Amino acid sequence: FLLSTKAGGLGINLTSASVIILHDIDCNPYNDKQAEDRCHRVGQTKTVEVIKLISADSIEVGMFKTAQQKLQLEKDMSKIDEDSIDWAMLITKALEV
């Protein structure tokens, strides 16, 4: 299947596919994850391989890095005990992304 991330990320199951090639990285990493998850559905029997096409020395590199920083920030925030939150550090990290 060849679909854009937005079109392929909503309302369809692609359990017959075992390779996903994302050619249009989104600034919101959850849009990409949503598209990837179209193959990870009940009925999938194969290992799914995800390939992200990113052109060297392009804006896509920056978009990919920003998306990875957003995912890392979300992981960091989900591990935090509310009583020990360093709000200044979290706000600084969020503003850097």
TrEMBL record:
Matches recorded under PROSITE patterns: HELICASE_CTER (PS51194)
Gene3D superfamilies: P-loop containing nucleotide triphosphate hydrolases
ATP-binding in keyword set: no
Superkingdom, natural source: Eukaryota
GO molecular function: hydrolase activity
Keyword Hydrolase carried by entry: yes
Keywords: Hydrolase
Stretch forming the signal peptide: none
Pfam families membership: Helicase_C (PF00271)
InterPro entries listed in its UniProt record: Helicase_C-like, P-loop_NTPase, SNF2/RAD54-like_C
CDD domains assigned to the protein according to its UniProt record, in alphabetical order: SF2_C_SNF
Domain Helicase C-terminal: 1-86
Name by which UniProt lists this protein: Helicase C-terminal domain-containing protein
Organism encoding this protein: Ciona savignyi
